[in-house]
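the three lines:
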Amino acid sequence: MNVKSYYKHYHLMLIPGIILLIIFHIIPMLGIAIAFQDFRIGRGVFGSDWIGLDNFKYLFQIHDSSLILYNTVFISLCKIIAHLIVPLVFAVLLNEVRFMIVKRWVQTIVYLPHFLSWVILAGVVIEMFSLKGIINHTLQLFGVEPIMFLTSNTWFPAIVVGTDIWKEFGFAAIIYLAALAGINPSLYEAAEIDGASRLKQIWYVTLPNLVTTTVLLATLSIGNVLNAGFDQIFNLYNPVVYQSGDIIDTYVYRVGLVQAQYGFATAVGLLKSIIGFILIIISYRIAYKFANYRIF
Amino acid sequence: MVRNKTLSARLTETALIALMLLISLVSIAPVVHTISVSLSNTSAAAGGLVNFWPVGFNIESYRKIIDEPHFINSFFVSVKRVILGGGVNFVMTVLMAYPLSRSGKEFPLRNVYMWFMLFTMLFSGGIIPLYLTVKSLGLFNSLWALVLPGAVPVFNVVLLMNFFRNMPKELTEAAYMDGAGPWYMLLKIFLPLSLPSLATVTLFSVVGHWNAFFDGMIFMRSIEYYPLQTYIQQLVVQLNLSEIDSSQQEMLAKISDKTLNAAKIVVSMVPILVVYPFLQKYFIHGIMLGSVKE
Amino acid sequence: MKIGKTLILLVITGTLVSACTSKNPASSTTTGSSSPGAANSKVDQFKMPNPIEVTTFKGVTAGAKLPEGDSAENNQYTRYIKDKTNISFKLLWYASGADYTQKLNLAVASNDIPDIMLVDEGVFRTLATADQLEDLSKVYEKYASPLTKELYNSTNNKAIEKATYKGKLMGIPNISVQADAMSFLWVRKDWMEKLNLQAPKTVDDIATIAKAFVEKDPDGNGKADTIGLTGYEKAFDNGGKANFHNFKGLFEAYNAYPTNWVKDSSGKVVYGSIQPETKQALGKLREMYAAGLIDKEFAILKDANPNVVSGKSGLFFGPWWATGIISDTFTNNPKADFTPYLIMDAKGQKNNLMVPVSNRFIVVKKGMKNPEAAMIYANNFIAAQRKVDPDALKLDFSIDASYWPIGNATYDYADAVERKSEMLKKAMSGATKPEELNPEMKDMYDKAMRDQANPRKVIKDWKGFWGYTVPAELLKQNYTKVYSEYTAVTKTMERKWANLQKLETEAFFKIVMGNQPLDSFDKFVSDWKSQGGDDITKEVQDELKAASK
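prediction for all of em together
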């Protein structure tokens, strides 16, 4: 194989995209400088004072920064885990349905909530979990006293994670379904001839074929560990559940309401990126070590 | 024995279908609610009296939508955006995923490219520099402002690259033996064999373009250039009640017109539902069937 | 020059005409005496000598209709201004609601601002601090029309002070409509009659009514599903403007002004949220909440309107223009009827935290060639909004005011609502002839007459005038005016205010909802002080002291 002569073709394929990335991502990254400045409107990046790491220090000087950080990581880790497992299980189960019509319809329906924004869905969620809502109504049938879910610091994170799954699992399952569609059917035929039960087929054929996809998604989502979902929480929370629901992004938003603070906001963004990047590298290494597979 | 087995198989199947229907019911509830609101009278909707069935059925809100020139106009801006943006995304994803799916041995510089891309995915300079960049390129009010900044969907590239790498070796090796070059390999061997994953990444970028509203909001300076979701966003977004005064009464009435807003959301979902079956068949059927002979 | 003189003459006569209906004859004398001097000055205060083009951008009411062929950049208002002033506004962009705010902030942060624009106080201060604005002090002296100057004099110069930064006039302030400040208690009258309840005067009366509403099934549906007083997630935010479903009216009855910087009894400016009066009010709210007299779930609501509109609640605090919600309630329940009340403090006095005198400012980008264009625009806009220019009467004021070249702001009398209410009352009683009303008032009068013939037959008619009758009458009563003394952001606030606000809202909600004892208020106060509140208080007091010197 004359591999070296292919190099130029490979470069050629990559160059257009790389140029666009440079123009629209790398050049604007000069703006990261703001994170180290007391950025003042009118003076711009070149005229504002350099203040070193003050913006970063400020983040940790916030009275309850550890609580906010804990909330963020807790909610987002729960979401990451749930987002890996629920769509996977759903996709595998759906794959087992033999009726094509059911399969198609179910798959189409579960993907719909993805298209409703949190502004809309939050209204529905608040209604559902209210004292007169369907959840309390159902609980009452079992003799449970009505619970004020959305003002309860015990329940709030669970509701956030649960409703996020509700909105996104159908859409997230598509990747797994595509991976399932790529499995060679002859593998199932062979397993069937060997007398493998359905469960065994899932265990020995389906799941191994989803490992790569799962590891890939896990690694990429780990990079988001400090993004617990601003839109959702912003639309669902209230001061009573600040204790369990206030995350970095909602806090930064409220700081910005007092006075736009570009330096601080950029610093927080940069910190989130750095931590995300480090975590991605670590999980990439771990995946390589244990699954012997390079996802990047 | 045999009968027993089929019976249990049937039971499993029934239980499975029942579970799936239950899940669907839970998922479709908010959509049905939104449709019901869109078909109710405005006062009932404002009072939160609508659940899963219209109260005071009427189609007034849909009539109003048809009458609103900006809505229809935005609708077509979005269609154009999805076609152009989806097309650019598709070309970029395919072109970049293939060389990156080569191993370090086959293409030593791939790692540099790869980590460069991951870097751009995670780090950003914030919205102000991007705004200034788009401005200095003179792209305000241009469809390209909605397409070019996100032209390379890194997530999709990584996804497709991994699908490419898992391509059965038998196929690719045979083609290599025949002396097929990179372009031939990509276009004639890899693409036809990756329809499920191509359908997936296409769906992702189409949906992404259809749902995006923020870029339209900052780069489009006049309402006639707004994509649909930007247009809807500015109407549906929660109004800050503490900012309102008597001079904005009309605005309050407008914003609180829940039926109209619901109708707009419903209408905005329709195209996605129309396009969906065409892509869906690729990840529900096994398309690899027949191409791999063992 | 000729046109200018005619215009000024028109202005004078116009003002005299309107002064006939005004309660304050002093204003007409002021105008009369100052205008001859203005006419002698050399400049035309109403028109640019040569046509110029000025860039701008603005916020537009979402979905507001325009006649066929008109646009945000070219409509009756822009043509009117162009005709009068020689200024054509080039609209760089326009947007609505939160979208507008986002775009504006981005443009400001990117130094991408137009020649002239209308901004709120936050943006005004940001731009002034950043030295991005043209000093308008001289322009104001030279170009402000007599009517314009009279308008600002009527605020005791408070408006001009608000637009002054480091001794320079950096913007042309608007005049807020003070009617928007009053927080009324709106009560379902039909329910009160059914349950034989007295009109509320004090906070205890609210509790009595709420108790009756909750316990005695006023809607007669046989279910205990009526909730008492409404609230929502921002119920403790008390700006100058009266919101729907917040507790402004109740706090005021305790002389408490949380979230505002007000003068205490000794005349010192203090933060309202940490005062003992606030604790007292919170104690009452807590008691009412525990008794089930306030919506149990008010903390989670983004919007409590559905509770009223659906007929679940018949008791809420809201502004004089609550007619929109009420008319939706009518549609769902034709028997529903609402009456507004003012809640008094222990001494029987009504306290009212006023709207900041100005909250919008016309600003000019630093280095703009013709800064006087802003003043000329303002002169004409004020003349038109006051309807002293006869040509302005030809304008169709039912077209949304945000289509004026730089957007919507009131440069009308601070008591515009009361004035209109008087005009309507006189016309309805026959004291003035309907033909003499300006188009806006004529329209309102027609609606009122149609509604009198067929009460509430056409809800739109009712909605169009009723706010100027019963609620506006209450505005004419005597009340104590309380002012928010400080609305800017100090240096320490930039970093610490978000945290203090979090402390505050968390404490307020938890106290009222019974998660924490009332005395935890004291802990909140000491936390607030030690976590930066004391420093901020000092900064605020110092800044105000420096400004008053």
